[in-house]
Write a structure and sequence with these properties.
Layout lengths: L3 E9 L11 E10 L5 E4 L11 H17 L3 E2 L18
Parallel strand pairs: 1-4
Antiparallel strand pairs: 1-2, 2-3
Length: 93
């Protein structure tokens, strides 16, 4: 696998959780890319950071904030290798 960064990822809510069509959930994820720069995997939404000392935690948080600010929102359905479908108006995602 090539590189990784933190990205805000948009996910379509399951139809039984939507009150109107096209509702989304957003989460901060670690996203991995292949050598061609295509997103190919994402981790679970980030709930915490760890490290061997406080400076590693701070560095990780700073990177997450920088990546989230500088990169556009990534649609979950644009990540290769994940099983899901893009939302379709009038039907289930």
């Amino acid at each position: 696998m090539g590189t990784w960064n933190y990205r805000i990822v948009r996910q379509t809510l399951p139809s039984n959780m939507q009150t109107t069509w096209g509702e989304y959930h957003y989460g901060l994820h670690e996203v991995h890319y292949d050598d061609a720069g295509n997103p190919v995997a994402r981790g679970e939404p980030l709930a915490g950071f760890g490290g061997d000392d406080p400076s590693e935690i701070i560095a990780g948080l700073e990177r997450a904030i920088r990546d989230a600010r500088e990169r556009p929102v990534l649609n979950e359905w644009d990540i290769c290798g994940l099983e899901h479908t893009a939302p379709q108006k009038g039907g289930e995602a």
